Amino acid sequence: MRLKSMLSVLAVTVAATGTSRADFKYTQQSKVTGGALVGVTKTLGVFSKNARQATEPQLSTTMVRGNRLRTEHSTGTVEIIDLDGKRFIHIDTAKKSYWIQTFEQLKQQIEQAREKVKEDQTKAAAKHDDAQSVTMVPKVNVQATGQTRTILTVPAKEVKMRVDMLFQSTDPKTQADLEKSNASFWFTGDSWYGTISGYEEVRQFYVKMAKELDWLPGSMGMANPQMTQASEEFRKNSLKMDGMPLVEYSSFGMASNGQNGQAGDASSANQTQPPPAQPSSTNDSTPTNPRDAVAKSLGGLFKKKQQQQQADSTSATPQPASPPGSMMDVTTEVTSYSQDSLDASLFDVPAGYTQMQPETSAK
Do residues 334 and 246 touch, judged by C-beta distance below 8 A? Predict the structure, then answer.
C-alpha cells in the first residue's frame, strides 16, 4: 500500500513537471538594410526625426510569463498582452501613463479595416467596364535548405519562406490577364532556427493569440493592406517552424510583368539577382513632366541599392541580396535570451501611472 502511494506521488510530480511553465526573455535587434524605400526614408530623415529613427537599429525585449507577454521597445514604450483579461496594456514610460485596449476593440478595428479594403476595391472595380470581384489569395512556399551555422553558440538551420498575395478574379478574361501580368504583393524570409529551451512558451502564447484574434503582433507597420496581409500570413506560418528564429532576413515588395518570375518559390527569396540593364543615355536628360521625374528618381534609388548590394557582396559577412522589386529589407537577430524567473509586477500597470483614453487608431 505504501509503495502504491509513493508511485502515485511520483506520477503527480512527473506530470506537474511536464506541464510546468517557465518564464522566458529575449532581446532582438531589427534594422532596415535595403530596399527602394531606404533612400526615400534617409532623405526624409534630414527633416523628420521619426523618419530618421526608422532606418536606425531598433532594440526590443520580449518577456513571457504564463498567459501574459511584455514587449519593451527602445522608444520607451511597453506593450503587455493579457490573454486571460483579453486586453492590451499600452505603457508610455516617459509620460508615466497607460491606456487599455480590449481584444473586442481590436477585433472591431481589424474588421473595419477589412471592410474599408473591400469598399475601396468595389469603388475601383466600378470605374471599369468589367466590374467583377477581384480578391487576393495567399500562396505560401517553405523550403528547408539543409544549410547550418552556429548563432549564439546554438546550432541553427536555414529555412526560407515566401508568401505571395495573388490577385484572382471571377471573370475568366481578367483572371487570364492577372496571371499573365504575374502581379502580386509578396513577403520573403531567410530565417535561421535554433532549439532554445523556454522559447516554446513564446510560441504557445502566440498560437493562443492567433486563435483568439486571427491576428499577430509584430507584423511590419505598413499602410498598404495587402502588404499587411502578406506579413501576417508570414508570421502565422512562422509559428509552425521548429525552433526559435535567431536571425531573419526579410523583404517585402510587389511583382508584375514577369518581375521576380519565380513567384512563390522560396528558393528564389533573398538570392543574388543579375543586375538590371543600364539605362540609356536618353534617361540622363532632364525630365519634362512629373511622371518622368518620379520614374527617374525611383530608377536612381534602385541603382543605388544595387551598388550597395555589390559592395556588401565583397565584405566578410555579406547580407543576402534583395529580390527584384523589394521595397524594404529588414534584418532581425536575437542578441540574448534567458530563462531566469521574471517578477510578476512586470506584467501589470506600474504603480503611480495615469490612465489615459484609448487610442483610436488601429495597431
Answer: yes
How many angstroms separate the CA atoms of 204 and 201, rounded? 5
Q: How confident is the model at residue 124 (pLDDT cuts 50, 70, 90)?
A: low
For residue 83, which amino acid is it? L
- Residue (of 199, 201, 195, 197) closest to 21 by Cα position: 201
- Where helices occur in the chain by DSSP H, the ranges are 2-19, 36-45, 49-54, 103-126, 172-181, 199-213, 225-238, 290-313
Q: So what's the pLDDT on residue 63?
A: 98
* Banded pLDDT at 118 (limits 50, 70, 90): confident
Of 63, 111, 62, 55, nearest to 343 (Cα)? Answer: 63
Q: Contact at 8 Å (CB) between 323 and 329?
A: no
* Pairing mode of beta strands 326-338, 184-194: unpaired
CA angle in degrees (0–180, nearest 5) for 87-91-95: 150
CB atoms within 10 A of CB 270: 21
DSSP 104-155: HHHHHHHHHHHHHHHHHHHHHHHTSS----EEEEEEEEEEEEEEEEEETTEE
Which of 124, 251, 118, 263 has the alpha carbon at shortest distance from 180? 263
> Which among 2, 185, 215 is positioned nearest to 88, based on CA atoms?
215
Query: Do residues 81 and 343 make contact, with C-beta atoms less than 8 angstroms apart?
Result: no
Q: How far apart are CA 262 and CA 16, in angstroms?
A: 49
